[in-house]
Write a structure and sequence with these properties.
The complex is a heterodimer of chains A (about 160) and B (about 425). Chain A is mainly α. Chain A has helices spanning about 1-70, 85-90, 95-105, 130-140, 150-160. Chain A folds into two domains: about 1-35; about 50-160, Orthogonal Bundle (Cytochrome Bc1 Complex, Chain D, domain 2), CATH 1.10.760.10. Chain A is elongated. Chain A starts with a helix and ends with a helix. Chain B is mainly beta. In chain B, strands 10-11-12-13-17 form a five-stranded mixed β-sheet, with no helix packed on it. Chain B has helices spanning about 1-20, 235-240, 245-250; strands at about 35-40, 45-50, 55-60, 70-75, 85-90, 95-100, 100-105, 110-115, 130, 145-150, 155-160, 190-195, 205-210, 215-220, 225-230, 255-260, 265, 270-275, 280, 305, 310-315, 330-335, 350-355, 355, 360, 365-370, 390-395, 400-405, 410-415. Chain B starts with a helix and ends with a strand. Chain B is built from three helices and 29 strands. Classes of the chains: A mainly alpha (about 160), B mainly beta (about 425). At the A-B interface, helix 1 of A face loops of B.
Chain lengths: ~160, ~425
Amino acid sequence: MLEGQFLKLATLNNNLIKMLNNTLFNFIIMMAKQLSVVCFFILFFTIAASAQDLVKGKKIFETRCLVCHQADGGGVPNMNAPLDGSSNVVGNNIARLVKIIIGGYSEKVPLDGYYYNNVMTANPDLKDADIANVLSYIRTSWSNKATKITVAQVQAAKRKK
Amino acid sequence: MKHLKNLFFLALLIIATQLGAQNNAGLKLPEGFKATLFADTIGSARHITITKNGVVFAKLMYPNKAGKSIIRLEDVNKDGVADKINGWGNYGGTGIYVKGKDLYATSDNDIYLYQLNEKDEVVNPLSPKTIVKGLIAKNQHASKSITLDGENNVYVNIGAYSNACQEKDRTPGSKGMMPCPILDSAGGIWKFNATKENQVYGDGKRYATGLRNVVGLDWNTKTNSLFVMQHGRDQLNSFYPSLYTDAQNAELPAETMYELHEGDNAGWPYVYFDPYQKKKIVSPEYGGDGKKEGGENALNPTVFFPAHMAPNALLFYTGDQFPAKYKNGAFIAFHGSWNRAPLPQEGYFVAFVPFKDGKPSGEWEIFANGFSGLAGDEKVTNVRKVKSRPCGLAQGPDGSLYVSDDARGSIFKISYTK
């Protein structure tokens, strides 16, 4: 009898544990599902936002840069420097790129072995985010496969004189 | 089987070579004209000039791979292709002009004079006379083009180191300077004695002003006067999007030809020439709105062409080889545009304007096309991929027309055969 009682209890206990286990399992599964959804959304928005940055960068390129640097980023020989394939554009000297975008350019120095003699217009009105976006666009367009530029990088570049 | 394959490739090779000879070096020309590739990849060939013996000299924008910047080309076996090529000089530049045994060449600052012997070989490659020195060259529009008149004077273009004489060049909203101080030392044509050494600004004379940048110029021996081709201003719509659309930017202002006499003013930077209204319009940097007329005392163009095509050479044809309609008319080498983007580019051809009694006697037309290397009528959209860009013109002693190209570094020889 007692044995029977104990067995009953044990079964009950087992069931309880099973139930608890199930609940915990379900809970974990549920959490994981939710987490993945959250992760998915975070990822989605990151990608979307990043694509959005490139769209904004492209817009700035088209209104301010394309007329000289051309739609293919190839520039004009001897006149306007190319962006596509330019060691400056895909290089790591972000401070120099930021400085040229803000202040324009008129020095006669060779780029990848060629000279360019047109004057680049200054863009003092561009916001840090605009600069990051347009830099990200030109660094990842055509054959360029450099890293994108963040607002923080632009701000750090501006602090560097 | 292998033999067959080899034979096939040999046949292809022969056909390709034949086509190369028959296709006029890739140029599209009027009926009866033929072209040969006189020279190829000699360097960035800007202007060219030809002696009475038919020796061609080309000035390179930069020294070529061999470190030479003035190239001498001779076609000894007379097959239309230069077979004796050598060079000297270590400085880049655009201008070159031969008169008898005097060979003039320019850097961006100076005009030099070399002496040729009876074989048209240079006598003093390392020690030319310096005729003019210290001309302004600030990177933009720095190249110096030259021509001579019949009275021992040399005319040199000094381009404005600016787009529209703004307080800050090529900056949106920056006002035009009044008066434009650049015009004191640039933005015009200067006249110097062609044989006096070491002349500076004070020794010369500002012959004509109000010319933003001239690359093509020639002395017309019929009218006994100087003709020039101006490069019109850029970026009307980039800086004034409320006044000009992309489409208007692509078409404004006209590229203009002027006949110049001493003291003339072509209006830059205060006005530009609108090819649709056929009027001189006040520049937006000087308060213009795209309609307001100005430049009452400024010249009207002799001929005008579509915008931004960059006329880099002008030549009045005095030969007897070409049909009568070409006699005394003007050939213009259009280097090709870039400032029409995002719209397709224009130019990259040699144009012709017929002249009678010193005045244009008909519409301009495309004379030689196909320099860009694109198929059919395809327009240039990628400037850096263009094969050849016409930059210089010269007339051979037999009346053939030579065209130089500073992209691939070739020279084309165009002849007429009945």
